[in-house]
Amino acid sequence: MATVLVTGGMGFIGSHTVISLHNNGFDVVIADNLSNSKTEVLNRLETITGKRFKFYKVDCCNKEELRKVFEENDIDSVIHFAGLKAVGESVRMPVEYYSNNINSLLTVVTLMNEFGVKKIVFSSSATVYGESEDVPFTEESPLGTCTNPYGWTKWMLEQVLRDCSVAYPELRVCLLRYFNPVGAHESGLIGEDPRGIPNNLFPYISKVAAGTLEKLTVFGNDYDTPDGTCLRDYIHVCDLADGHVRSLNYLATQSEGVSVFNLGTGKGTSVVEAIKAFEKACGHEIPHVFGPRRAGDIPVCYASTDKAREVLGFEAKRTIEDMCSSCWNWQTKNPQGLPED
Ligand code: NAD
Ligand code: UFG
Question: Which has the closest alpha carbon to 220: 276, 270, 146, 284?
Answer without folding.
Answer: 270
